[in-house]
Amino acid sequence: PLCWPGGEALLCRADALPDLPVVANGGFVIVFAVRDARCRWEGATLTRRLIRAGPGPAPSAIAMPAGTELLVVRLEPSFLLDAAGLAWHPNLIFRGIEDGGDDVAWLIGAALRRECSDGGVHGPDYAARLAAVLAARLAERHVRLDTVRPLQGGLTGHRLRACLDHIERNLHRDVGLAELAALAGLSTTHF
Questions:
Q1: pTM of the full predicted structure?
Q2: DSSP class of residue 101?
Q3: What is the pLDDT of residues 41-57, one digit of tens each?
């Protein structure tokens, strides 16, 4: 397997997918068919080359010919977010895709596959850069901020409104942190 800080990639046959440590380790797992593959997963026929991308372990329920060659890439969530220029947020959702028609992601995967089959001749930095580009591409399409689920922590609605109103009423002067904390009924440390 190719390894870099924040992820790894390896080639395998479809029948070996459930037993791979890279799959069991979690993170954001991407599964590519090396060639166009007609396979079935949960009753649907998959005709795309990017079979699955999503959080958690790769599903073992991908039904395809046992000899189908796959590229499995695992990215740590922090690597995915860093590559995409995103910061961690409690309401981030990593949305998975199945049977994705993302040809750009597949082409990046094809370059990773070549690097895997060549034994990593270009070095781990090359694989890490390819993985970063893949991560940025996938994050652009599959990482979203969930606006439905309420945030945990923070100021209650009436305290937040009181602080914002106070700031708006005092735009002509500097408003100190201690002043806002007292208005919210919190210490400056907790505010």
A1: 0.63
A2: -
A3: 444 444 446 667 776 65
